[in-house]
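Help! Submission page says 'invalid entity' but I think these are all valid:
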Amino acid sequence: MLNPQLEACLQSVQKPGRYTGGELNSVVKDKDSIRLRYAFCFPDSYEIGMSHLGMKILYALANAREDTWCERVFAPWGDMEEQMRKRGVLLYGLESGDPIRDFDLIGFTLQYELCYTNMLNMLDLAGLPLESAERTALTPIVIAGGPCVCNAEPVHAFADIFLPGDGEEITNTLIDLLIAHKEKGSSKKEFLLAASKLPGVYVPSLYDVSYNGDGTVRAVTPQGDAPAKIKKSVVRDLDAMFFPESFVVPSVEVVHDRAVTEIFRGCIRGCRFCQAGFIYRPIREKSPETVDRQCRDICLSTGSDEISLCSLSASDYTKMEELLTRLVAWTDDEKINIALPSLRADNFPKELMEKLSGVRRSSLTFAPEAGTQRLRDAINKNVTEQEMLSTARQAFEGGWTSVKLYFMLGLPTETPEDVAGIAELAQKVVDEYYANPNKPKGKGVTVSVSVSSFVPKPFTPFQWEPQDTREQLEEKQRGLFSHIRTKKISLSCHKTQTSLLEAALARGDRRLAAVIKTAWEKGCRFDGWDELFNFGFWEEAFMEHGLSVAFYANRRRDCGEVLPWDHMDYGVSKEFLIKESKKAGENETTPHCRVKCAVCGADKLNGGECDARCKGLV
Amino acid sequence: MRAVRVWFKKEGRAKYLSHLDMNRCFTRAVRRARLPLWYTEGFNPHPYLNFLAPLPLGQESAAEPLDMKIEGEITGAEIEKRLSAVLPEGIEVTAAADPADEALSIAMAEYGVSLLFGEGRTAAAFAEKSGELIKSGLLTAEKTGKKGRHKVQKQINICEHIFRYEISASGTVCSLKATLPCGSQSNLNPSLMISALKRETGLAEELITIRRIRLLKEDFSEFR
């Protein structure tokens, strides 16, 4: 049952179903029979967090342990935050309704930089001091994982431990260690020292950072015998890896409510702007048998009518045909749809498309990313105009009437011709539609062009690049608008302020922790939501700490500069990234990993193995 | 194909699920329960589910009727058992049987409302003043109605829509029982009545529970 204070909150907020818990398949345990309580926090709304696969896996994984009870926590929306503060309701776990302040472990998943203020807000709503140093007791220990942890420096002060890489194995190891130390009565310091000895664990308080006069990092120095380099965790065998047999079924509508499983982790493509393409290396595939079994389990336990096969580039899965044959054998009868996000435009066989013909037709999406072949080569997005247009033609022949195209502005080496190329490519897609003799009568085509701003990220060949300034980006956006001459093309551009902040936080150093805290104090929350984003607060926060957004976002770094994340080891070597960066400058492409191994170095984290290579396709 | 009327309770945390949430929730539940349902034959087949008297968000119910179409042999008891196992906390199927009455014969609903006040005197004052207001025969409220396709605000006199009521206070709790119109012909959300009473009395509760107790036909007999 809900307590009366919480109930009073719920009666005054929008969509109270987000805050009640009690969903089907949520896990409730007897408090007295467990040894560790874990609050898994997603620092965004319920609707976003409940769509996230990683959280589903780690929630089930922790709850599969008899000694642990893991609960879900999401960021309350503004109206709920106000009610909670007014009525003194502390942030609670959805399963028990108990304040997470009393839990042993609090975990955050940091999926994007713009959720940092939500992490702070959640700690505050929990009634906990924001900074690791102010939380002196052993528990709760605050940990964080997710892609942002590849450069956790801007939030180093708030978590006790970061877990770079795959969370499936290290979570269990860390829980074991914490239980042991809790029962031994260790101090927090003793526990952190022990944890820092585990591979895949980064304890930021055990490192000192010094700066040069120009504000760049001079050195990151480990204290005592903390490792100089922290290796990310890698799960070697995805078939043997833990995967839930059931998902919590959200009671209110969320962004993605479907049975989802990964078909592989990592990517062979090496698009130079894409952080995910590098930090999740090496590529590891799941067998069709495993994927099929996992989909069945989830559909049975949740009643889901849609399966989503998740990866960074679905058409690179080597056993897609076998997998679809297996799936279609039972999903048709069960009236279950199969969704394949992240399909590339160039290599998806028509026959496979037909296998999916029962699937509801949404619009078709391509991500050419850049407007000209020259720039696509520079960013190593190895897809040609011919390939895109022929896929579009096939789609139009198959009855599609709308196409979405994703591009980025501000990519390194971009020229005005590249910007104009975006409009030209979109126009060619429109022309392709009208060239189809069998186009539906009286129906026009819609080509939606969505343009974001390029954000340079750590562990990519572009990590040294300056981001275009806001003025440059806005100038390019205006230029692009002027090139569009038809109403068949609808163009939308992302807000440049958001991308600017994202760029500053992504490559930030430890000094940004104070900036983030100040921005939060000024009222920043849900920065990823356009309607709540307040760039003015952020600018003030940077200024109050004598820092500038431009230093982090718009400055070109020298290859020799110590980067704030240099002590993190994500497998891909710096030499490889430098080589790729040079090739970008010469518009030279790198073939994908199955054509030729680019010797990125990621396989060393996986015992020298890489699925791109063991397929005999070196 | 035959129709089955499923009766369920909606209590506790589940009362914060909206009507759309309920639809999604039962769609998933019937799939999980593997009920032999009839699917619509359109482009996007889905099971036919008809909530006869959608409940406003935040209200509880002791007995909500839901009609489904079954294709195949299955007993009411089996439907009840299988569904109950796959619903979220707070939703419990209490019966599944052939429909006795036409869906359109729902005319009224009986509600139990309990208001928790800060102190006993407020609860008593609220009960007393509310009784007088209802007896006076004039208690206005704004209601969103439809005129053609447009939404319009209209003034209604709530007293004209109250078929039966009882109001009393005990300690800090004021209890109100009311029979109000419910259905497609005429409908009055009890929270509209409560907010009119709060406005007129100038008193506000700390916590409120609204519970639909049963659905009635025109002649005050229970809808089944």
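Support: the input was valid. A stray whitespace character was the problem, and the output above is from the cleaned input. Chain B touches chain A at residues 12-14, 16-18, 20-21, 24-25, 27-33, 39, 43-45, 57-58, 86-90, 116, 206-208 (CB under 8 Å).
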